[in-house]
Amino acid sequence: xxxxxxxxxxxxxxxxxxxxxxVVNKACDPSSHRDIIxxxxxxRVSMAKAAQGEDDMxxxxxxxxxxxxxxxxxxxxxxxxxxxRTQRFFPTPADLIAICDELFSRRRMLRDAxxxxxK
Length: 119
Prior knowledge:
The protein contains five helices and no strands. It is an all-alpha fold and 119 residues long.
């Protein structure tokens, strides 16, 4: 017969599990519009791009904000930094989404696994 596991072990494990879930969920929190606009501004001043009027810039920024809003700030910052360091021209939303998806995929899997476990 197996020895009985003390209740405190089960409680400690449950508390650790909850803490891990909270950390993963926090790491998946989406970016604010301000975070995204800040990263776009860094790219605008450091990369080649087509000449645009103010209205075009606002429309372009709105599209990027809408498309990237579900990603955490560190994921967007890393994607933008990677693009700036490896490319010469301003990205499309699809370019950044591809990088963000790559960076965020494992974190998203963890979050989804924790969500399934709590159901």
